[in-house]
Amino acid sequence: MKYPKQILEGIKNYLLTERSNLNQKLLSIKSQDPFSDPERTNDNAASDTEAQEESSHDRLEALEKELQLNLREVNQALERIDKDSYGKCLSCKSFIDTERLAVKPTALYCVSCEAKKNTNEYKNSL
Fold first, then answer.
1. Where is the Zinc finger DksA/TraR C4-type domain (predicted)?
2. Which of 11, 50, 53, 63 is deepest in the core (most CB within 10 A)?
3. DSSP character at residue 104
């Protein structure tokens, strides 16, 4: 059993659009990063400018990592659609509820397994 083709096509189109948007955002972030400018100089006389650039770089770097993670999740979801395994929980192999997929189309786990996974991760972090 798998999800109807019409539903999967809609999800796939959404994910393809999301992938394009994420790639555009990543390009934009890279162009905004002051450290990506080959003309940039590290001038100790302008320490306030240097601090601003470092702060901006750190913020953009964190945002870039988050977008890279989102892009990886989208690509994995598209891969699962192509392999006819989209919407199956990686843990229990049951189908993930369509309401969950509507909210998070890149979901890997059903709500129950996600909760167990998060509980175990929390316990292991203590």
1. 85-117
2. 11
3. -
CA-CA-CA-CA dihedral for 93, 65, 122, 120, to nearest 10: 20
- Residue range 75-121, pLDDT digits in tens: 999 999 999 999 999 999 999 999 999 999 999 999 999 999 888 77
Answer whether 114's CB lies under 8 Å from 92's CB. no
CA 102 to chain centre: 16
23 CB contacts (<8 Å, ≥6 apart)?
Answer: 71
User: In this structure, what token pair is assigned to residue 83?
Assistant: 């392999």
Q: In whole angstroms, what is the distance from residue 30 CA to residue 11 CA?
A: 28
Cα end-to-end span (Å), the chain: 40
Place of tokens 């999740």: 73
HEC sequence for 72-97: HHHHHHHHHHHCCCCCECCCCCCECC
